[in-house]
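R.M. (postdoc): so does anyone remember the format we settled on? I'll just put the structure tokens first.
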């Protein structure tokens, strides 16, 4: 019998990698996508199957984490063996601007999925994965961070995810649900959202290289992150639900870099060497021809920042047999390579006289 998985957030970075991974494992994959005024399925279009064909193993449903009736109906219809709750308003900086919505989608949204499982009496059938985050550690209390490190969230996003974390633990303890948290550190890829810092950097530097953009504006260059590849991390998400007992796991590489390191390495991939001058708000990065191509813009500073994150995933290594496969250098190279291809496409469009708009946040 094929297993059935239901993914919230299937149109996001992790949703796309996980759907691909599960289909290759022989799962039937159902996903929840939001209604949007434009198509929002770019990342999963290669998996799309014509709804007119019977016997599909990839099915999409319209839905939203803020709508319980919709969640109950979809879960009842799909009768999944595994639910991966990946949907969230996932941008930390944006959560300061939309705190109430973030709490509703990321915090109460998690409760809605768990309650749907309980209302439908599926506690013994369904395994539930919650996309928890290293942002829970926020103002870090211990380095490196592991499963037992105390939390200190520093943004409306992290506070909402703290609720998601604990309600998952509570439903496991209260109702015997197989429910787990994956406490995942930053993970990136060529399909990372364009406003997260890594993708913003690789996209901008490739466009600067081809003369499509002048400057990359960034916030805190000294922030330290433990960056891995999304492809490796979705395997961990699956492994977490295959254990005998439900438990929570930290997933990280155990290696830390600054945002500035990321810029330098991405530059090197493009034969751009960056000379940094000044400090804080006045800081600039100049290329080897003396042109300023990076500037610090305080608009990207956060009201409360998470300065440093470094994960210890020893438990995942010992119990799941999981280890990251992609190095930091490989990750940056892959992202630069893919963004260079799309910058080259834009360059071609521009050469043929069509407008190549330059939207960047
Ligand atoms: P993305 O931002 O790429 O994807 C988020 C997904 O959630 C998208 O499919 C989005 O839909 C969907 N979504 C947002 N709001 C709602 C809502 N109200 N109802 C239904 N769907 C919604 O995030 P990632 O793939 O990077 O991350 C996946 C999960 O893991 C998130 O919960 C994130 O917070 C968490 N996480 C991510 C880490 C990372 O480094 N990537 C690290 C730790 C945790 P749409 O496409 O329409 O916007
Ligand atoms: P993060 O990722 O907040 O860690 O959350 P992001 O890439 O947004 O920021 C990482 C660090 O870079 C600094 N930074 C900038 N960030 C952005 N977005 N844009 C900038 O211009 C910029 N300049 C500097 C930030 O201040 C920060 O310190 C991600 C999300 O995927 C969350 O959903 C997830 O939970 C965590 O990773 C783990």
């Amino acid at each position: 019998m094929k297993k059935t998985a239901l993914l919230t957030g299937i149109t996001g970075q992790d949703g796309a990698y996980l759907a691909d991974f599960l289909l290759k494992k022989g799962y039937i994959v159902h996903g929840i996508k939001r209604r949007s005024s434009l198509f929002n399925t770019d990342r999963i279009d290669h998996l799309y199957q014509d709804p007119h064909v019977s016997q599909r193993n990839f099915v999409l449903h319209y839905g939203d984490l803020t709508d319980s009736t919709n969640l109950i109906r979809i879960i009842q219809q799909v009768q999944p063996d595994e639910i991966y709750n990946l949907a969230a308003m996932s941008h930390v900086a944006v959560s300061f601007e939309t705190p109430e919505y973030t709490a509703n989608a990321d915090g109460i949204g998690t409760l809605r999925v768990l309650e749907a499982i309980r209302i439908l009496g599926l506690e013994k059938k369904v395994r539930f994965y919650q996309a928890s985050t290293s942002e829970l550690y926020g103002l870090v209390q211990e380095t490196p961070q592991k499963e037992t490190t105390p939390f200190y969230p520093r943004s409306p996003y992290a506070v909402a995810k703290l609720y998601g974390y604990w309600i998952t633990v509570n439903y496991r303890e209260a109702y015997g649900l197989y429910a787990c948290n994956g406490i995942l550190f930053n993970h990136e890829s060529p399909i990372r959202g364009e406003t997260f810092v890594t993708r913003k950097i690789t996209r901008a530097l490739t466009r600067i290289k081809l003369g499509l953009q002048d400057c990359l504006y960034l916030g805190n260059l000294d922030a330290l992150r433990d960056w891995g590849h999304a492809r490796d991390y979705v395997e961990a998400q699956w492994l977490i639900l295959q254990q005998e007992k439900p438990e929570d796991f930290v997933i990280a590489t155990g290696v830390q870099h600054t945002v500035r390191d990321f810029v330098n390495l991405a530059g090197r991939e493009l034969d751009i060497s960056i000379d940094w001058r000044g400090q804080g708000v006045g800081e600039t990065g100049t290329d080897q021809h003396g042109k300023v191509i990076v500037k610090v813009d305080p608009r990207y500073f956060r009201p409360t920042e998470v300065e440093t994150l470094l994960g210890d995933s020893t438990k995942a290594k010992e119990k799941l047999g999981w280890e990251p496969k992609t190095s930091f250098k490989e990750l940056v190279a892959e992202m630069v390579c893919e963004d260079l291809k799309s910058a080259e496409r834009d360059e071609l469009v521009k050469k043929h006289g069509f407008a190549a708009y330059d939207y960047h946040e």
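R.M.: ...and that's the designed sequence above, right after the tokens. Also worth knowing: The pocket of guanosine-5'-diphosphate-rhamnose (ligand 2) is lined by residues 90, 92-93, 133-135, 185-186, 195-198, 200, 218-220, 223, 225, 259, 300, 302, 305-306 (CB under 6 Å). DSSP finds ten helices and 15 strands in the chain.
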